[in-house]
TrEMBL record:
Residues 78-315 form the Radical SAM core domain. One of its GO terms (molecular function) is metal ion binding. The keyword Iron applies. Keywords: Iron, Iron-sulfur, Metal-binding. PANTHER family: SLR0285 PROTEIN. Residues 1-21 are annotated as: Disordered. This is PA0069 family radical SAM protein. SMART domains: Elp3. The keyword Lyase does not apply. It comes from Piscinibacter terrae. It comes from the Bacteria. InterPro entries: Elp3/MiaA/NifB-like_rSAM, MJ0683-like, rSAM, rSAM_sf.
């Protein structure tokens, strides 16, 4: 008890519950593979009223270490510009409410809501498995992205250094990679990234969704602040690393009015390229995002979703390749025109970064006792 209130850890929250500081959502929404669905109800003893007055402690982050069998994932989506990906982590503490990767936690029998940002799977042997894959005689170098699903530089990376160990393997093999991140953590690894950039082996994009710190705090609560991300762009550019900005996702009437300002701020910081994707609401992301809208922008919620549906053929989401990233219809076309005019005016995307696949050197496979072979 504290100040006459009951304190309990939040494990589940109904759709109308209050937001929790430092988390994108407090809703432990059931996933589509759940065999049981639970909901709050009044049992006649005042339980519902009691829950409404209880003080909820923000849930702690749990790191679950996992030794995986493989770490390279193939991309079969024709509208994504890489062939392979390495995700050092599953789940993401940044807590971005709109994250398209939230539904992947369903495969772990965890909630795409609260669990996605509080139960983080760390692939502690990622570098070892990457080395094995690259050492295979059948492997041919392909365009590889680090952290395609969840940010490779989320908070626990400062301690576990899994992402750094993956980059160390790529650096040794001179294998190119790209990355999109919301974190300033990549600055720690400039000693690896900058020399690779000189050999055309790296392209980095920093994701900036808003320049408004108040909006960023509720939209992506544990990611770096907007001004800090601009400093990261500046640091990468000064180190000679090709750096771009991702203004994604574009959310109508929320961060959409900032599109040109974000592009301009990124260009001023040293970005030379850009891309932008409209809001995607697959599976459980849809109700999670709509709950967030009702909590933080109730006066705009209906208008936002009406515009989203206008770009999705009347639906909340359309997974069709090509259209899923850009949307369709008049409003999507107007967005594209604004983006194109701004990038042209700012000199973004004038030159394309071509990563060099020809420098790849196959690593020696580890021997059975765990040591590299000498001959």
């Amino acid at each position: 008890m504290r100040h006459g209130k009951t304190i309990r850890l939040v494990s589940e929250a109904p759709a109308g519950s209050a937001p929790v500081k430092g988390r994108g959502t407090a809703w432990a929404i059931e996933h589509r593979y759940s065999s049981q669905v639970s909901e709050s109800f009044d049992d006649g003893w005042g339980t519902a009223e009691q829950e409404a007055t209880e003080e909820h402690l923000p849930p702690a982050t749990q790191i679950i270490e996992e030794r995986v069998k493989s770490v390279l994932s193939s991309n079969e989506s024709p509208d994504i510009g890489f062939d392979l990906s390495v995700n050092p982590y599953r789940g993401c503490e940044h807590g971005c409410v709109y994250c398209f990767a939230r539904p992947t936690h369903s495969y772990l029998n965890m909630s795409p809501g609260l669990d996605f940002e509080t139960k983080i799977i760390a692939k502690v042997n990622a570098a070892e498995k990457l080395r094995e894959a690259l050492a295979s005689k059948s492997y041919e170098p392909l365009m590889l992205n680090i952290g395609a699903a969840t940010d490779a530089y989320q908070p626990i990376e400062r301690k576990l250094r899994i992402t750094r160990s993956v980059i160390e393997v790529l650096s040794e093999c001179e294998h190119p990679f790209s990355m999109v991140t919301k974190s300033s953590g990549i600055e720690r690894d400039l000693d690896l990234v900058a020399p690779m950039a000189q050999k055309r082996l790296v392209a980095i994009y920093v994701s900036i969704t808003s320049l408004d710190p108040e909006l960023a705090r509720i939209l992506e609560p544990r990611a770096a602040a907007p001004h800090r991300r601009l400093k990261t762009i500046e640091a990468l550019a000064k180190a000679g690393v090709p750096v771009g900005v991702s203004v994604s996702p574009i959310i109508p009437f929320i961060n959409e009015p900032e599109l040109e300002k974000i592009l301009e701020a990124a260009a001023d910081a040293g970005a030379t390229s850009a891309f932008s994707i409209v809001l995607r609401l697959p599976w459980e992301v849809n109700p999670i995002f709509q709950q967030w809208l009702d909590q933080h922008f109730p006066e705009r919620a209906a208008r936002v979703m009406a515009r989203v549906r206008e770009m999705r053929g009347g639906k909340d989401y359309d997974a069709k390749f090509g259209a899923r990233l850009k949307g369709e219809g008049v409003w999507a076309q107007l967005l594209h025109q604004r983006y194109s005019k701004a990038t042209a005016r700012l000199g973004l995307n004038r030159t394309r970064v071509e990563l060099d696949l020809t420098r790849f050197k196959r690593p020696r496979p580890p021997s059975k006792n765990g040591q590299g072979e000498l001959f």
